[in-house]
Design a protein that fits this description.
Elements lengths: L1 H15 L2 E13 L4 H18 L2 E10 L7 E11 L14 E4 L5 H10 L16 H7 L5 E5 L5 H13 L2 E5 L7 H10 L13 E4 L1 H12 L8 E7 L5 E4 L5 E3 L13
Parallel strand pairs: 1-2, 6-9
Antiparallel strand pairs: 1-3, 4-7, 4-8, 5-7, 6-8, 9-10
Length: 266
């Protein structure tokens, strides 16, 4: 629920920056009339999630909004962490560097859509929302690690487009290597969605020196959360766009996302 998602969202942002999350502030905006049982469930989940990660909620505030103005509850979290190892930056990325994703993509976006039943579909797809700290901490042992990002809003495609804008280097992706669950792909095929643009809340995209790419991949695959990790492409200075090589042998350019494909909750 939104309690665990609030903790994971902020702690994962710190983790992919190469930090160990330590402290959170929490601001709660609660709509008048919200059921106490719902609030208790959210707060209980938030506390349990923070304890699992080892992060403490040390400050915050609460505001009550008038009925009809709050959408139930909004949680705003801010985190502080301690950097663990070398600094990561897009400026370190070079031609030939390898792009790795830590697991199947699109689970969260499709799970949210099915839960809201906006299209009359039902399924047992589970959100991938989780802490990525084990993945990022293990990746920080590799000096060839250039950059990490959790592909939340806009998915993997948006992360790659951010890399392109920041570095001027193109990204070449291989569709056949992209890990997507069959159920997620089926929903995407029916509704015209592209898994590349769907939000993930428990995955990591990493850019690493090709000499250490296979070692990092095997490290992630040895962790339960990263057992389906895959090398999905590389940085290519000979193109100035994000290119997807399709399973049929064709190519298509991934464009900027104009709007979120699904209503967001984070």
């Amino acid at each position: 629920n939104i309690g665990s998602l609030a903790v994971h969202g902020t702690c994962n942002d710190l983790a992919v920056a190469g930090a160990i999350p330590k402290y959170l502030s929490l601001n709660a905006f609660i709509e008048e009339g919200m059921e106490i049982s719902v609030l208790e469930r959210v707060v209980k989940t938030l506390a349990e999630t923070a304890a699992e990660i080892g992060v403490k909620v040390v400050a915050g505030d609460t505001k009550v909004l008038r009925r009809g103005e709050g959408g139930g509850i909004y949680l705003a979290t801010t985190g502080i962490g301690i950097r663990n190892g070398h600094a990561l930056s897009m400026k370190h990325i070079k031609h030939g560097d390898v792009v790795i994703v830590s697991g199947p993509v699109g689970d969260h976006g499709i799970a949210v859509m099915l839960a809201r039943e906006e299209f009359g579909l039902r399924g047992d797809i589970q959100s991938d929302a989780a802490s990525v700290l084990k993945l990022t901490a293990s990746a920080m042992n590799y000096q060839g690690l250039r950059f990490m990002r959790d592909p939340t809003r806009g998915g993997i495609a948006t992360v790659c487009l951010e890399l392109l804008r920041a570095t001027g280097l193109g990204v070449r992706l291989l569709q056949q290597r992209l890990p997507v669950r069959d159920a997620v792909q089926s929903v995407c095929d029916m509704l015209g969605y592209d898994p590349m643009y769907l939000a993930c809340e428990g995955r990591v995209v990493a850019v690493v020196d090709p000499a250490e790419a296979q070692a990092l991949l095997e490290t992630w695959q040895s962790i339960e959360q990263g057992q389906h990790a895959a090398i999905i492409g590389n940085i290519d200075s000979e193109i100035d766009y994000v290119l997807m090589q399709t399973e049929l042998g064709g190519e298509r350019i991934l464009e900027e996302l104009e709007d979120d494909p699904l209503p967001r909750i984070c």
